[in-house]
Design goal:
278 residues; Rossmann fold; two-stranded parallel sheet; 9 helices; 36% helix; binds S-adenosylmethionine; Class I SAM-dependent methyltransferase; methyltransferase activity; methyltransferase; SAM-dependent_MTases_sf
Length: 278
């Protein structure tokens, strides 16, 4: 694609993390035995005028596969929801340039993205709204987004790669606000462990030589997942969603075993979970 046809990108530190995710998702999607079929992510990376490699360093194959597997666990939760509520609403908090809609849409569901204005503008320029898929340019902490959701057809909220960038009190309030309003609904989210959250706040944390991750003020260990239930009485169940099996020694053989070893579960750099509201 000629450079003048490309879409320029200027994002702040935290919004820019969506490009790290997209870059690695697309890299994983290009692998011959990929764990994630995601041609739309590849298309988006090719459309953006952004120095991915200069900014983030060369793609990291293990992190990219981990990213693909994490995305697959979110997709699985959305597919399960749509199987039960085919016309329901999937609310993607902080959707970035996620391309989940193109992986799992059933042709009848409704999709609402709640994003910061700068990210919403970029997303809209690449992936314009349709009748069933809308973007709201607003912080997830402005709880008025809840008024835009029809609760009647079933609601699933996803927060992928979001909560770690919020403060602990904000996370608690956001979960409580979802539970309070969307009884019968669920929230799928991911969390980083406390050691990683503390590390990003103490010193520069570099997943590659050229890139420093923004601070992640909220961390939650896998061993303390049940604390999420204390956010609101309507949170009646919280459980971890295990990553699907991947390729190679780490994601093919070791990760499934790690889930069975309580001593190391808090060391895993990310955890995906679902909270159910009643
Ligand atoms: C790591 S990216 C995740 C993007 C996408 N969910 C994914 O997994 O690729 C973090 C996202 O959080 C969004 N974000 C951060 N704070 C937010 C807030 N208060 N309200 C809405 N979005 C927010 C950023 O704009 C960015 O898109």
């Amino acid at each position: 694609m000629a450079n003048q046809d490309k879409v320029p990108v200027r994002l702040g530190r935290v919004p820019e993390t969506l490009l790290w995710n997209l870059y690695h998702r697309a890299y994983e999607a290009r692998q011959p035995r990929t764990v994630l079929h995601d041609p739309k992510a590849i298309e988006l990376v090719d459309r953006l005028d952004f120095p991915f490699e200069e900014t983030f360093g060369p793609p990291h194959p293990l992190l990219a596969q981990g990213q693909g597997l994490r995305v697959r666990s979110f997709d699985g939760a959305v597919r399960d929801f749509l199987a039960e509520h085919p016309t329901g609403t999937v609310v993607n908090l902080a959707e970035g340039l996620e391309t989940q809609f193109w992986r799992v849409d059933n042709g009848r569901a409704h999709w609402l993205c709640v994003e910061l204005p700068e990210t919403a503008e970029l997303r809209r320029s690449l992936l314009p709204d349709t009748e069933r898929r809308r973007i709201l340019a607003r912080s997830v902490l402005d709880l008025s987004w809840r008024d835009e959701v029809d609760p009647g057809r079933g609601v699933l909220i996803t927060a992928q790669g979001l909560l770690m960038y919020l403060r602990p009190g904000e996370v608690r309030e956001l979960i409580a606000a979802c539970a309070e309003r969307f009884r019968g609904g669920s929230l799928v989210f991911d969390a980083v462990p406390r050691w990683l959250s503390a590390g990003t706040q103490r010193a520069e944390t570099r997943p590659s030589r050229s890139y420093v991750m923004p601070a992640m003020p909220w961390g939650l260990n896998a061993g303390e997942l049940q604390k999420v239930r204390t956010a609101h009485p309507a949170v009646v169940e919280v459980r971890e969603l295990h990553l699907p099996r991947g390729r190679g020694p780490y994601f093919g053989a070791l990760t499934p075993v790690l889930y069975r070893l309580p001593g190391v579960r808090n060391l895993r750099p990310t955890m995906t979970a679902i909270a159910r509201f009643a």
